[in-house]
Fold:
Amino acid sequence: MTGTPLLDVRGLIKRFGGLVATDKVDLRVLRGEIHALIGPNGAGKTTLVAQLGGQLASDQGRITFDGIDITRWAAHDRARHGLARSFQITRLFKSASVLDNVALAVQAVTGSSLGAWRPVRRERALFERAREILAAVGLDDQANQFVDQLSHGERRALEVGMALAGRPLLLLLDEPMAGLGQQESASMERLIASIRASCTVLLIEHDVDAVFRLADRVSVLVEGRVIASGKPADVRNDAGVIAAYLGDGATARRPRLENPAKAGP
Structure:
């Protein structure tokens, strides 16, 4: 990690009529870190991620990514520049194979030909890259299965793999553990920990125990505003965070940081 932010958000605002969903948000994500964004339901996390990804235009503020002002860029331009996003709801081709889903994602970012003059599976480099991604997310044994044969956790891992197809500089992970059981959550946690070797991660997640194990830094969003940002131990013990998010009974529920080691791959 370096001190220069890969993502630098200043004064970001999004209004829906009289509702201010994000209210002068400042957020800085450093290169090489896992930065977690947490907060209660309705805090504005999903709106903020959509603003960062380009799915929602901001009303005010600035987004600088890799030294370039991308505030007015379309989502596909941000993706080409290295900002990738996964979604809360999986977006997969369920009637296609796992390998073909990833190959299509690779094709989308590389522009490799999928024309009618030659069979898709002759695109050797494309499918080699797809298989590399499947190995990285632990799905190489499921390459020839159809997506609708996968468990929910495997589908979430596949979506992460597809987001990695373009070798992003920054990956926005929007609640990747939503709906997962204990074992699948543990697998996803290991996957997220392994991603940091290849890209920076901004993690939006409700599982605060996993967040505090994984994150280098944590920002807390409440009612559209970032009320705290810093190292996990500092944020965990912040009086404002306890009052606004963790609650009065937070002592028993706060993540234990006695062993701050990050989850391994």
